[in-house]
Each structure stands twice: as structure tokens, then as C-alpha cells.
Amino acid sequence: ILNVEQSPQSLHVQEGDSTNFTCSFPSSNFYALHWYRWETAKSPEALFVMTLNGDEKKKGRISATLNTKEGYSYLYIKGSQPEDSATYLCAFSDYKLSFGAGTTVTVRA
Amino acid sequence: DSGVTQTPKHLITATGQRVTLRCSPRSGDLSVYWYQQSLDQGLQFLIQYYNGEERAKGNILERFSAQQFPDLHSELNLSSLELGDSALYFCASSVDEASSGNTIYFGEGSWLTVV
Predict the structure, then answer these.
(1) What residues form DSSP beta bridges with A13?
(2) In this predicted structure, what is the pLDDT of residue B94?
(3) Yes or no, beta carbons of A95 and B100 under 8 Å apart
(4) Which of A37, A105, A26, A32 is nearest to A72 (CA)?
(5) Distance between CA atoms of A85 and B32, rounded to whole angstroms?
(6) Which of A43, A95, A96 comes nearest B108 by C-beta?
(7) How confident is the model at residue A2 (pLDDT cuts 50, 70, 90)?
(8) CA-to-CA distance for B69 and B52, rounded, in angstroms?
(9) CB-facing half-sphere around the CA of B53: CA atoms within 13 A
(10) What tens digit of pLDDT does each residue of A81-107 get?
(11) Which of A45, A94, A102 faces B99 most closely, judged by CB atoms?
(12) Which residues fall within 8 angstroms of residue B26, CB to CB, at 6 or more apart?
């Protein structure tokens, strides 16, 4: 069983503030690390796939970094907006995706 | 729209019954994955197929089975249903296997309610 852990479980952010949260994963036999954005009653939306140590990906105000040697990834949201409210999932892939429990972000106007 | 199509979107059935959930992957994708999301649970991996062959099994009950057909669509069969099988079942697809680092796209899920 691969342990993918995300912290914090939830967080509240004031509109306009920036925030970040963590995903930790096994550092051995690494293939790829995925980030998804998941809104209630919708399908998980792929944000990033990162494969190389030191990878940094950016999509609009959301960015992510990857450290495969120590087994963690950060997701950053810059200038949070109410539409950023969602659960952010990370997943470690070998032959399948093993998901963390997610970080639920609530952006207050 | 991810391009992964799942049917039915909602299904209500009685305990002991059998249902089939269907998934059409994105055009060109060879891998199909099934996940279960129960109340207060994260996404639990059930099974994966690649180009018609079973590649990996996760926490899939013996009452459940799946297959991927030559046209690459997949079906998840759930039998002898119990109340605890009520969940959201997701299908996902990717061009290659998960270890390749390709993006894996999710369908909108099939809500199963067992009463």
C-alpha cells in the first residue's frame, strides 16, 4: 500500500491571499506525481503531471513543485479567488494512481 | 469535458441485484481505470486494463468484475449488491499506463445507490 498523504486536510483562505499545501509520497520507485482539482458533483480535473525532480509547473495562478528525493510536492494558489474553492488531490503513479485524501480549500470573499 | 464517458450517471437498485457500469475512454486512450469513492472515503483504486488486458487489481471485491473490450470500452459488473456498495464509481483513461507519466482523465462518474 502506497501512502500518499496530504496536509492540511482543509484550509480557509481570504480572497486575494495566497496559499499552499503539501503532498508527501514514497520516494522510491517514483514514476509521476499528479495533481487534480475536484469540485463536488464533478469529475477530478487534471492540473499537472510531474515526473522529474525539481519540476515546476504552472497553470494560471496555480503552480506546483516536485521533490522526488525527499518525496513531497507543493501546490500553490496565488491571489485566491472564490472559484478556486475545491478539493485538491495529489496522486502517486506506478501502474495506477494512488490518491491522497485531498486538501479542501475554501476561499472566502 | 474530459472525453471519458460513463453511463448510467445515476442508478438505484436493490440489495442482491447486479448492475453494469459502462465506460468509453477518450479517443486513442488504451488504459482504463476504475475507482470507487464511498462516503467519507478517498478514491479507491479497483482495477486497470490496458489494451484489453487486465494490468492491475486494487481493492476490488470478488463480487465485482470488469473487462475491456476490443473497441477499448470497459464495463464494471457489480453483483450481489450490498448497501455498502453505494458509491460514486469513476472511470478514467490514459494513452499509456500510469507509470508513463501521461495525464489520466476522469469521467463524471456513475452514482450507484443500493436500497
Answers:
(1) A107
(2) 94
(3) no
(4) A26
(5) 29
(6) A43
(7) low
(8) 6
(9) 3
(10) 999 999 999 999 877 788 999 999 999
(11) A94
(12) B2, B3, B4, B93, B105
CB burial string A25-56: b at 16+ within 10 A, e below: beeeebebbbbbbbeeeebbebbbbbbeeebe
* A residues 46-65 closer than 8 Å to B (CB): 46, 49, 51
| Angle, CA B56 vertex, CA B52 and CA B62 arms, to 5° | 95
Contacts of A96 in chain B (CB under 8 A): 33, 45, 48, 56, 58, 98
> Is B104 within 8 Å of A31 when comparing Cβ atoms?
no
Q: Given CA atoms B36, B6, B52, B99 in this order, what sign does their dihedral have?
A: negative
At B37, phi and psi to the nearest 5?
-125, 105
**By CB neighbour count within 10 A (0-12 exposed, 13-18 middle, 19+ buried), where does B74 fall?**
buried
User: Is B104 part of the contact surface with chain A (CB cutoff 8 Å)?
Assistant: yes
Mutate which of B104, B110, B111 to disrupt the A interface (most A C-beta within 10 Å)? B104
Q: Which residues of B touch A101 (CB under 8 A)?
A: 42
Greatest alpha-carbon pair distance for chain B in Å reads: 40
Distances (CA, A) of A75 to A35, A48, A50, A99, B74: 8, 10, 12, 15, 33
Residues A9-66 have pLDDT tens digits of: 999 999 999 999 999 998 888 889 999 999 987 889 999 999 999 999 999 999 999 9
